[in-house]
Structure formats: C-alpha cells, structure tokens
UniProtKB/TrEMBL annotation:
It comes from the Archaea. Belongs to the UPF0440 family. It holds the Pfam family DUF3194. Gene3D superfamilies: MTH677-like (3.30.300.100). This is DUF3194 domain-containing protein. SUPFAM superfamilies: Hypothetical protein MTH677.
C-alpha cells in the first residue's frame, strides 16, 4: 500500500462518517433517530487499520433493523476501500 498523506487520512475519516450516516438515513427517517454518534479511528503504520463505531438511539416508537449499525459500518468500509482503490 502506498503512503497516505495526512490530508488523505482526513478525507478517509470524513468519508467513513458521511457514508455511515447516509446509509443509516437511507434506511430510517431522520425523525426516528434521537442521537447518532459515529467514531472513526485510523491507524496507519504498515497498512491502514480502520475502526468505526456507530451508536444509534432510536425513538421508542421506531422499529429499526437490529443490524443497521453493523451494516452502516460495512458500507463505510466498502466506501473507504473504493476510495483507496481509485487513488
């Protein structure tokens, strides 16, 4: 893997957050989400290690899919892989 610049690492972090958020809001209306916290940690030494944590608090009347946070993480990682492949 080629060396990534600090700017590229920032872009990857922002891409991960936006991708996860867009995925969630494509599945659930914003009004059903009371709180959304997306944390991205990048560790770049011999390769790029990405840790994404998605914490969602739903409206009590909402009936979300139980795996939506995990699906959002998977989607964000796929978007990061695509970004790296293009650059």
């Amino acid at each position: 893997m080629r060396k990534l610049s600090d700017q590229e690492l920032d872009e990857i972090s922002e891409l991960a957050v936006k991708s996860a958020e867009n995925f969630i809001y494509s599945k659930i209306p914003k009004k059903e989400v009371l709180d959304l916290d997306i944390k991205v940690e990048l560790d770049y030494h011999e390769g790029l290690d990405v840790d994404i944590n998605v914490d969602i608090q739903f409206d009590p009347l909402s009936k979300p899919d139980d795996g939506i946070a995990d699906d959002a993480v998977d989607y964000a990682i796929a978007e990061i892989d695509s970004y790296i492949a293009k650059n």
